Amino acid sequence: MVVGVLGVGIGAVVLHGGTSGPPHPSRWDARVLDIVAFDEQHRGLTYEHPVFVDFVSPDEYSKRTRAEQSALTPEDKSQLAAAEAELRALGLATGSVDLFSAGNDLADNGTLAFYDPDTERVTVRGTELTVDVRVTLAHELTHVLQDQHFNIKASRIRRLTTSGEREAFRAVVEGDAVRIENEYVASLTEAEKAEYRSATRASVDSTKNSLQSVPVALQALQGAPYVFGPRLLELVKSKGGVNGINEALRSPPSTEEQLLDPRAYFGHDGAKAVEPPALPDGVKESTDNGDFGALSWLLVLGERIDPAVALTAADGWGGDAYTSFVQDGRGCIRIAFRGDTGQDTTEMHDALNRWVALMPSGAASVTEDSAGVLLQSCDPGKDSGLVLNNRALDLIGIPAIREEVMLSGLRDGGLDVDKAFAFGDCFVRRLTFEQITALSATDDGSVSPELTQVLQNVSATCTSQIS
Fold this sequence. Notes:
Elements: H1 8-14, H2 33-43, E1 52-56, H3 58-65, H4 74-89, H5 99-108, E2 113-116, E3 121-125, H6 131-150, H7 154-159, H8 163-186, H9 190-210, H10 216-250, H11 257-260, H12 262-266, E4 288-290, H13 294-302, H14 307-315, E5 317-327, E6 330-339, H15 342-357, E7 364-369, E8 372-378, H16 392-395, H17 397-411, H18 417-429, H19 433-441, H20 449-466
Parallel strand pairs: 1-3
Antiparallel strand pairs: 2-3, 4-5, 5-6, 6-8, 7-8
Helix pairs in contact: 1-5, 2-6, 6-8, 8-10, 10-17, 13-14, 14-15, 17-18, 18-20
């Protein structure tokens, strides 16, 4: 997937090294005792032991979250340069992109605390226990419970063989913590909720400003686990209760498709085996390879073509593999795709033809054979003139809203998984992209009277279609 090509660009600032058997305090910091009790009660798990909660200065917090440029090896720098070229080849970036700084900014800016599973410590930005810090601690202390009961350490992540597995695992981990965080917010007084909403709006505005140099697609990929994880786990809980969530942490989803289309998770629909594409004649080595993923297809295609067409193509994902390389001084990527069905493969081919036509002339090509579809795209250069639509954050709202509506059909409408998904799919496909964007942008659940009427009409139409 796209985030996989970043390598050290993001990985170095997300995974922190630690020693075996880190020390633990004999008792919890008194400032977090009420949050500890809340998390135990609402998560249904008991802490095996306290962990250190370090309240540090903003400068020290940034030091703990950011990697040092001086620590980059020549191989790291080469990987970052190759990843930058791949992002331009995929139409997700233009000009020069400092991926190392982007990774640091994504890890640092806009965060108030983090739990490092390898050092088993929580680090908090600042010393004041404001309401937004307390909410964040409810989230991070849930990670402590997860780690003590299910192991979320880097050693476990390294055993996962594909980037799809790693991203799906991260989605379950973050989704569970967001779920408890939301319950904590619901427990606040009305005055505290108002204070929290105000702090959140200010934080969002500040984060947007600080991430202006980070490609929007990377922001979307970094945030995707927080979007899809909670929704998937609410669906899991509606079918299997908290035990179902525990099982999802033990045996998490295996692909990004299972995040975008929960039917694949419930049906244990994994990835089809796809061989990495062969290198072109004359090219002797690959700079990177792996699996690409349904979410990455949605973001790449949807950046250029009709988002509904992009969603259809991504929904047909059966499996894929990519190989990147340098040819004639340009970074290039080849991605082999197989659909769930022959029709799915054809739909991806059609979508890619539209996408190729909107890329700089000669940059990309697509072919189809009995094995599937093969895309090749090369870096058009820093001065290609390619215009970004920067749709990524809005694009992930389409399957997210589909899952919200699916949950309603499953939990409130008495539908089975397939019919609930059909209800959600019908719903988002009857909305324009602008309407979906407006719906995703609401932070308090309020929408205009005009959009409310549209939603009611669409719901009625889709209800009649699946009944």
